[in-house]
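Re-run requested by the PI after the first attempt was lost when the workstation crashed. Everything re-entered from the original request form. Ligand of interest: NDP.
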Amino acid sequence: MDLDVVLSALTPSWTSAVMLLAFFTYLAIAGSILPGRIVPGVPLSDGSRLHYRCNGLLALLLLVSVLGISSWMDLLSPAAIADRGLELLSTTFIFSVLVTLLLYISGCGSHHQSSSLKPHISGNLLHDWWFGIQLNPQFMGIDLKFFFVRAGMMGWLLINLSVLAKSIKESNTSTSLILYEVFCLLYILDYFFYEEYMTSTWDIIAERLGFMLVFGDLVWIPFTFSIQGWWLLYNEVDLTSAAIVANCLVFLFGYCVFRGANKQKHDFKKNPKAPIWGKPPKVIGQKLLASGYWGIARHCNYLGDLLLALSFSLPCGISSPLPYFYPIYLFILLIWRERRDEARCAQKYKEVWAEYRKLVPWRIFPYIY
Ligand code: NDP
């Protein structure tokens, strides 16, 4: 593709701004009114808790149905998002910059007494804008952190579905594209099915909401996780049956480890006596789980996620490194994240964590790392 074409495709447009605002408005309304389990978040530093309405799956299914019916009635083109991929990317980027500037300004002006809602201002404007100054900013009763990650995951699925529609329109749908689409669909549906688990993850409990997180949720997740789909629109891959079976096995194994590990920790936090793989759990210092996946490596959930990421790229074959962007990025992110989490846990759990480390020496990859 020539550079001029790419640059002109990257120019934001009013149409993409309207599409983006319509999406956010839908999410804000659906998230506030659709029924869903109200889940208490982890206790904040002042002992209070936020509450999250976990209705993401319903909101997603309703949105996809409405868009599907509108396309069927010829009210909109199902390939509209794929046709405007680059301009939506630049519009979302600009939105992320603007919204985080507003977050910074409103954070500076807020005078919350509660320590968990108090802004943390370092005085370095760039640092504070990048990392954020508020842990749990709210807007009209909406928790913005929970909102943005939900928008990112749904945006990823919408892009994928639109890429699929474009490939059908251009009669170049391949087995590879279908494999990629199905794996991502299952992963995203699973994410929303277990949305309440999100309320205890690092991003929600430890990261402040600044440009880094908003950009990660709104731009990075939907636009870079979908690279494989875009790539398959323009490149042909011949997969053997053995390669397809192997690819499905990587996905299934990755899924079992990822979901199994996250579920074991979640269940353990709710009920420390809940059996793990049919046996009473091994618990260290009455705080840390050391059985099941958590007895194999200290972050088996990251291993599962990495295998899943790999399974999303394998349908693209090995002719280009580009479709491997997501697993490579995730590898770097999770290695870094594990180090930060390790430091946090060592500080929080002290000698109990040291004992856990001794009992479970592997960080992510058993017998390797
Ligand atoms: P975890 O869900 O692993 O949460 C880490 C926290 O769990 C620790 O801080 C500690 O918190 C608790 N913990 C750690 N070890 C134990 C133990 N043995 N027993 C009991 N509690 C323990 O990390 P993340 O929030 O980073 O990740 C959640 C999921 O999201 C992962 O599956 C990850 O792969 C995925 N993810 C995906 C990304 C992507 O881009 N695809 C990006 C980032 C994450 P506490 O203080 O509560 O005890």
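Saved to the shared folder this time. The longest strand covers residues 37-40.
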